Amino acid sequence: MRFGVEPPCALVEVELSNTVKFRSENFAGVTVGALYGFTNQSSSTTGRSFSFGATYGYGPLNLAAAYSEYRDRAFNLANGLGLTSFEGVALPTSGSFVAQSVRNAGIGGSYQIGRVQLHALLTQVRIEARGRSENYRTIDGGANFQVTPAYMIGAGAWTTTLDGQRWTQVTIVNVYSLSKLTQLYADVMVEQASSGATASTLGIDPSSSNRQTVVLAGIHRLF
Length: 223
Known about the structure:
This is Porin. By secondary structure, the chain is mainly β.
């Protein structure tokens, strides 16, 4: 399990309806799956989506890879990344950017060494609209240390690039489990954006500059 704030990959998370999904049985540690989302439109491609992936687990090693493709998807680039324009189009702060095609690929894994879990993730999102395309790449890595059965400390960093800009964030996480269903947490996140870009931690309003420091504390309740 990983804790902390992830790169702003939620920009490409979508809710899907009218889909079919397949997931295989575990065979020698390997599980594969696929999903297809129907268009719901007269066009055979408008709103269409599909995805497939695989996981592998053996002892302390866990690996996963996935590929997804979406048609006609909206992105909240203004609030999500603090961009004021994208592919030459001005972005309203309360509006969305609609891409004709989005291709999302990622590979990640973790490795357990005693009480330490190392983890890493690499993703690329190709956004195509108006005859132009941009690649949104993210590299993420870190480690979690289980101090006691109830207390965990995590540290990690990610860096992402899009449309000639870069965002980098370092995160330190403290998680204390009161029970299997209830956890207390405290996070500290420091983000630095390249010159001309705006720092914007996911879930937090964009900064007024290219730097942002966020402190979060609260309770996780699992149901």
